[in-house]
Amino acid sequence: xxxxxxxxxxxxxxxxxxxxxxxxxxxxxxxxxxxxxxxxxxxxxxxxxxxxxxxxxxxxxxxxxxxxxxxxxxxxxxxxxxxxxxxxxxxxxxxxxxxxxxxxxxxxxxxxxxxxxxxxxxxxxxxxxxxxxxxxxxxxxxxxxxxxxxxxxxxxxxxxxxxxxxxxxxxxxxxxxxxxxxxxxxxxxxxxxxxxxxxxxxxxxxxxxxxxxxxxxxxxxxxxxxxxxxxxxxxxxxxxxxxxxxxxxxxxxxxxxxxxxxxxxxxxxxxxxxxx
Length: 276
Fold this sequence. Notes:
By secondary structure, this protein is of the alpha+beta class. The protein folds into three domains: 1-59, Helix Hairpins (Orthogonal Bundle), CATH 1.10.287; 88-114 and 258-275, no CATH class; 117-230, DNA ligase/mRNA capping enzyme (D-amino Acid Aminotransferase, Chain A, domain 1). It has helices spanning 5-22, 31-47, 88-102, 145-148, 176-188, 197-205, 210-214, 236-245, 259-263, and strands at 72-74, 108-113, 118-125, 128-134, 140-142, 165-173, 219-228, 255-258, 271-275. α1 runs antiparallel to α2 (31-47). The longest helix has 18 residues, at 5-22. Mean pLDDT is 86; it is low at 269-273.
């Protein structure tokens, strides 16, 4: 069946407006105008299912129920957890090891907010979201592609000059205002409430019914570029800029700091740092 040019145009428009709204926070059309475009595309796909593509914005609304539970996913590169430095001595010990490894005495770091949610790996093949998986024990996680696809700011299709294969890792989290609204709704419906936003995010992403996840205020923020065919950025900042150029959200507070004194500035106790 030939491609419907209007369906292709609508997919491009809706993906662009989704990016402007959820990633750039700079919408240029109203919610009503967006919904009209969305419903037009949905009507075309319902009338002719051959027009439905994996990157269609209509696939973000959920509805698919995973059968038999969440399937295991073996990570090609182990997903590590972050280490903590609660005392000055902890950071100095870390810095000494890195300085010896790099042969440098003055180090710069990339500093960014640490979101508390569920560590998640996203794999894109030819620019299309192919897999979403939880960290699990680091070696083996769970396939949550069906719910990852419903997270509003995760692109189903990359933008720009993207690589043939990309693995990016980050955090699926729930903003506090969304968490409070969710718990209020749970109480009104006589359902169990969540103890904190992290549990709410994890419970939402691990739902078997993706329609449930689609109804939750989940967001994603990238913190690591694991592999991008043909590319090897030299710094973390460069890697994050590449992800941003492909339409993947990164932390808004990303900055370069110098050594221990830069890391210890007041008000930064909940931030993470990586070699720049």
